[in-house]
Amino acid sequence: MNKRSSNPFARSARIAAPLLTGVALASTAAYAADDAPTAASASTADQQFVLHREDVRHLPQPLKDTLVALAGRPHTFNPMRVFAEADKPSQLFQYYLLDTRGFQPNIFTAVFPGINDHAIPTAANAANHQLPTIGTVRVVLEPKPGLPTDPRDPGAFIDIFTDISGLFVINNESGWYEGWMIHDLIIPRVAPPRTAPSRDSRP
Question: Number of folded domains in the chain?
């Protein structure tokens, strides 16, 4: 049989503990409820900011819509600003919209029973309560003085800006990576292969 303590302070602590736990849970729930409108308001503000940003407002509509959608999701940074490193604005000449639709699901985009269903979900479409992973790639030319302004010229100054929502960090690395455009090497034509003499033609 358990012996009850005669210490009044111990009895008070036993009564107060559940009460304090209830107060903590209620406070947490109230804080989360109060914080939800603030988060929604911040997302809307970020979307409006990106929508009217100088490097975004003149972009093609599908690209603009995706950048604005990225700004409305949970994020640390808004979509990267295309910096004009020259006196004239950067020239967008290619862009790509990224998602995980339109191709066969794989272990990096979906859950397969018996294969990766017990793994920690760190692939695409797993972050922020399974939000679908989306992203954009913008390829721009910086019209710097003395450099070519034709993006097909290997001497042109090319920048690549990649924004992805729902990409897990690997090896605790964060921040941004600079992309480099590597032009394909032109392989010269070669002579057709020589026909090897047959065994019958050998002396």
Answer: 1
